[in-house]
Amino acid sequence: MKVRTLAVVLFLSFVPPASAQTSNFSAKKTPKPVEIAAPAAAHLVGESLVYDVFWMGLHVGFGSLEVREITEVAGRRAYHVIAVAQTNDALSTMYPVRDEIHSYIDAETFHSLEFRKKLSERNYRADERITFDPVSKKGLYESFRNGEKKEVEIPWPVHDLVSAFYWFRLQPAKPGDKIKTRVSSEEKTYDLELDVMRQETKELRGGQVVDTLAVEPKTRLQGILYSRGRAWVHFTSDARRVPVLITLKTPFGPVVGALRPSSATKNSSSAN
């Protein structure tokens, strides 16, 4: 399963803010740290987060994260999370991208049960799925384009690239913490360390001021984004841990995903 998606840039890879012009956010030093709330015990079905994506200050596309529903996978209740990334109209004339990822997250353990990606990037296409079996500790990979199927060994518990993001939002965290887990990608498993660096006050577009936790994910995942770039994300320090700013430093310049002011949570139902 090739990791070449803009969605990875948006949802698990994060740069120190390039500038207020680039990110449409401004940073302020926190004179007195705000109390960090205990995280929520579960996610809210209906939560929808929409991001504008900038590359070197230019608006290039959009991204979204949605907790669509609670469904069932292999007899277990699971959150169905959808991540979408696409280029805007201007860039699509030269390099059209429309990537869609589906992650099914165990509603009890918050680890991955199934991960599917549908990629459309210029001349590249992919439609793949891996299903994780915690009993046999195997992953069943299949490609819907060429019919390939195979089993891969996995440890348990394990995350996919999206479930790790949501799992972290439910963990107690404060500056100085290093929260560790494992993530499966490219049919291999890698250690993932989430370094909670500091508290920082951010002024969002529209003037809303929020206290955030700046987090740096560290992993040995293969690929240019991981071997040659650094990344950060800012989560609100309230119970929801909303990711308001996702940024990535790459060899090709900074990429920033900024939460839209109109992006809102819809409480369509309880997560339990």
Task: Describe what is shown at a glance.
By secondary structure, this protein is mainly beta. The chain has five helices and 16 strands.
Write structural notes for this entry.
With 272 residues, the protein is mainly beta. It has one domain. The chain is built from 5 helices and 16 strands. The chain has helices at 6-11, 20-23, 89-92, 163-169, 224-227, and strands at residues 26-28, 45-55, 58-73, 76-87, 97-106, 112-121, 124-133, 138-143, 149-153, 178-185, 188-203, 209-219, 230-236, 243-250, 253-259, 265-269. It has a 16-stranded antiparallel beta sheet that branches. Strand 2 (45-55) and strand 3 form a beta hairpin. The longest helix is centred in the middle third of the chain and has 7 residues, at 163-169. It is globular and about 50 Å long. Residues 1-25, 223-227 and 264-272 have low confidence and may be disordered.
Q: Please tell me the overall pLDDT.
A: 82
Q: Between the first and last Cα atoms, what is the distance in angstroms?
A: 32 Å
The structural domain count equals 1
Name the poorly predicted regions: 1-25, 223-227, 264-272
Largest sheet: 16 strands, antiparallel
Report the total helices: 5
How many beta-strand elements? 16
Helix amount: under 10%
- The Rg value, from CA coordinates, equals 18 Å
Structural class: mainly beta
Any chance you could write out the topology, listing elements then pairs?
Layout: H1 6-11, H2 20-23, E1 26-28, E2 45-55, E3 58-73, E4 76-87, H3 89-92, E5 97-106, E6 112-121, E7 124-133, E8 138-143, E9 149-153, H4 163-169, E10 178-185, E11 188-203, E12 209-219, H5 224-227, E13 230-236, E14 243-250, E15 253-259, E16 265-269
Antiparallel strand pairs: 1-11, 2-3, 2-15, 2-16, 3-4, 4-5, 5-6, 6-7, 7-8, 8-9, 10-11, 11-12, 12-13, 13-14, 14-15
